[in-house]
Specification:
Bound molecules: adenosine monophosphate, magnesium ion
Distance between the termini: 51 Å
Number of strands: 15
Number of helices: 11
Order of helices and strands: HEEHEEHEHHEHEHEHEEEHEEEHEH
Amino acid sequence: MPEENNTLSRQETPANPGVSFSVLSPSSENIQLLSNCLRNGEIVAVPTETVYGLAANALDPAACERIFEAKGRPHADPLIVHVSSIEQAKDLAHFNEKAELLAAAFWPGALTLILPKKSCVPDIVTASLNTVAIRLPGHPAFRKLIEACQIPLAAPSANPFGYVSPTSVEHVTNSLGDRIHWILDGGPCEIGIESTIIDLSNQENIRILRPGGISPEAIGEVLSINPASLSLDRHLITPSATGGLIAPGLLERHYSPNTLIQLHPHGTCFAEHSNNPTHAYVSFKKQATLSDNCFSLSDDGSTKQAASRLFEMLRSLDHQPWSRIHIEKAPDTDIGIAINDRLQRAASR
Ligand code: AMP
Ligand code: MG
């Protein structure tokens, strides 16, 4: 079948009419085409189960540079490297016993391991740190692409630096369509929130650097340690404590829409307060009396559903003329911890 037949759309972007991008379905032919692009140093937006990523050959510094350019990402912010097997991960990093346990329990999945890196990993990927972030993703189309490439793929979220991460092809085309040529369409992201990042480089001081799809409780159980000991005390984060790095996952303001966000405790009932018609009100669970400026993250209080809808909600409300977006926080359990982390950063000014 000719490649054109598998192309879902080829569009001219409004921002820059001279530039066009292709959205490709994950057929074998298209996977082959995109793997050739990646092997030739191009960048490709890819679906993952967490959020859409912007991928490049992790072993090619010039290709990785294109990711930083397209995103406007500072070079001090290292990239996550995606692999299709544990063996491939072990070519890049020195595994320890705890890494083996976590990989066996959660890979493929939404867990990123920070481990001492091997010399083949270029400095641009790790911001010159001696550690590398690695993940074996679960999304079948992305896995197929990594396998077809036979190279590890560095891929941060496919959004301009600091803005809300993308969970659909439309999000990618809206914010990066004038800067990229290739998008692999894998449908909407199932989890909808970025991976949990755990630093295993110092086995005496294991820390979750970014909450995500895998909860501290689940990790604590596999490692037989108290999940509370995994949490990062943000007050202790200094450039020297993090080896010179303040990861954007740790930045106070990140994942931010342009509209002002105001957070409210979990359990707040907006029905009594949603009286300013220029403000939007987002409850965690669908509430009985809804006016046009009321929205909800979940139908029945599911944190999983709320996570999968969060970024779509933030992006779509940000494109409407609300002067303020009120959001009720999630309960602080499971992926609700990650939702609240992203909300806190989205609300920071
Ligand atoms: P993104 O790819 O946009 O989801 O962001 C990746 C996150 O991984 C950022 O917060 C990075 O700072 C973090 N990260 C990547 N590599 C490392 C590393 N070696 N040490 C600590 N954090 C890292
Ligand atoms: Mg990101």
